[in-house]
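Notes to self after the Tuesday call (sharing in case useful).
The group wants a holo model before anyone commits to mutagenesis around the pocket. I volunteered. Ligand is carboxymethyl coenzyme *A. Logging inputs and output together so the record is complete.
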Amino acid sequence: MADKKAQLIIEGAAPVELPILTGTVGPDVIDVRSLTATGRFTFDPGFMSTASCESKITYIDGDQGILLHRGYPIEQLAEQSDYLETCYLLLNGELPTAEEKARFVSTIKNHTMVHEQLKTFFNGFRRDAHPMAIMCGVVGALSAFYHDSLDIKNPHHREVSAMRLVAKMPTLAAMTYKYSMGQPMMYPRNDLNYAENFLHMMFNTPCEIKPISPVLAKAMDKIFILHADHEQNASTSTVRLAGSSGANPFACIAAGIAALWGPAHGGANEAVLAMLDEIGDVSNIDAFIAKAKDKDDPFKLMGFGHRVYKNRDPRATVMKQTCDEVLKELGITDDPQLELAMRLEEIALTDPYFIERSLYPNVDFYSGIILKAIGIPTSMFTVIFALARTVGWISHWKEMLSSPYKIGRPRQLYTGYPQRDLKK
Ligand code: CMC
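Result:
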């Protein structure tokens, strides 16, 4: 894996030989671990040039617009697989046989309920609390309820925690929504599939159980698949960093949820709709595009651009197609916000500023439109991202704990005062 070497020339010091690591695909990586022996280290805020770990789960080629989970292209998974099968793949490395899949689905279904006492936890929150604030709290609180799976050194415990998290996230997400609505929380129904069950818990009430539209359930399932993992992004890196200290899995996922919340990351799907509201009308688009281009204005077009993709986000392509299917199923043809979104996309894709910087619409641009059409309130958008991403987070956490790892501890370039004396 490390046949080639790089040489680092430091003025006034002996050259340092650094091994070059080669992955199965993707660019070579210079291994700088031995640099610390020279009393120096590297400076890379934002991790623009730094691989924080080795992983076998997900591969992204941002220039080509490729996203692979365990080698399988996201488009194929979205078309031919389903969310729970994708979860199995991410967690275990291979697609399941029919028998393995049936066992996995049955195990997930056996864990969909949450401890009854957890319900009381919700009462501590204001009804108008942001659902992500509640999710950070209740997911972290799982560690107070499931003590029997907290030994992170025990592979069986890790497995049980992973199952619990994947199974309980839709229940917790729907409970959060019901709490904000003042409606009774719905128990999960194990005769439904993962996406149907989520929609059931979100939109049904004890007095009215409506059938779930197969088209909407399929779209929901695709949204889950498209958000399942995305290698070492901010939230996944947060989960790994928290996990590297030996924190329990529920605490680590709560940390991931907190990191996801920001508008530069998972919070962008909510921010897209807020931005469309703010733009209000097609006639205002030019002014907002000008704001987005203005260096002195912090405004950015939400749902555009990506740290890694400098080509189309492959998830956005599938999402756009799903968006069309959902709008057709719901008979939505003249939604003004949708018209606005499409016009914005058109302008941004032809504007030199966006072309030169490779700022394409990302996954969040279209997911917000679909979720809104399904009837999910904007404040729940990032919760849905968190629900779907939980399997990615926990797969990375498991991968890290299954091989030797060190506590994550970045260094810094200190530019504060040197030592000085306190003279009173
Ligand atoms: N609107 C206007 N200009 C932009 C945008 C945007 N959405 N995104 C980047 N730019 C400009 C930026 O100002 C910079 O210009 P210049 O080179 O003249 O200084 C250039 O493009 C490069 O951008 P950057 O901020 O250095 O890129 P980054 O990799 O640090 O940031 C990003 C990536 C996703 C945080 C950023 O594109 C952004 O804030 N986008 C809007 C928020 C968003 O949609 N986030 C969701 C990402 S996808 C879901 C997920 O995986 O989390």
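Two things stood out.
Residues 155-181 form the longest helix (27 residues).
The beta strands are 4-8, 16-21, 29-30, 58-61, 66-69, 72-73.
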